[in-house]
Amino acid sequence: MTDATSRITVNGRELECRAAAHLSLLRWLRDHVGALEVKYGCGEGVCGACAVLIDGQAVNSCLVLAAQIDGRAVTTSAGLGSPSGGLGRLQQAFLDRGAAQCGFCTGGMLVTAAEFAGAGEALDRRSIRDALHGNLCRCTGYQAIVDAVDDVLRDQGSSSPPAGGWT
Ligand code: FES
Ligand code: FES
Predict the structure, then answer these.
(1) pTM above 0.70, yes or no
(2) pLDDT digits (tens, 9 = 90+) for 26-79
(3) Closest C-alpha to 78, from 34, 22, 128, 35
(4) Domain of residue 48, residue span
(5) Cβ atoms of 24 and 45 closer than 8 Å
(6) Is ligand 1 within 6 A of the CB of residue 49?
């Protein structure tokens, strides 16, 4: 199969991507860039473990070909830190809330949450759960994950109480 060459920015670093035309973005990130925080779960768009931001939009990287995103910017969960080099707000909230158990789903959860936190929408807890519905946690740690995302949305003034009050 013919190689395709493209330029992709990963967490602020512009890289040349020379890969077989059928290589998924997930495989390229893990095997060629060393971005092992992007996890291979199902490989078919079901679990969300491989989610990354492409130009700010959360996408399952197992469903995208690396050759398709020439000129685009990819952000993985490792790229969500603060500009000063410390943990980003979502990362810190996950740590504070104990929102990772085995951690396999955590990168995808962070990336998906970063998309809707960045959009500044007012979300109640049910809406947070809905927004994370494509990210599966095998450890069933959803409560702490929702708590962490809720903390961040409240801090930035984009979380609102549901009709029945906060749970
Ligand atoms: S590995 Fe991509 S959605 Fe599961
Ligand atoms: S923390 Fe283990 S899969 Fe979510």
Answers:
(1) yes
(2) 999 999 999 999 999 999 999 999 999 999 999 999 999 999 999 999 999 999
(3) 35
(4) 3-77
(5) no
(6) yes
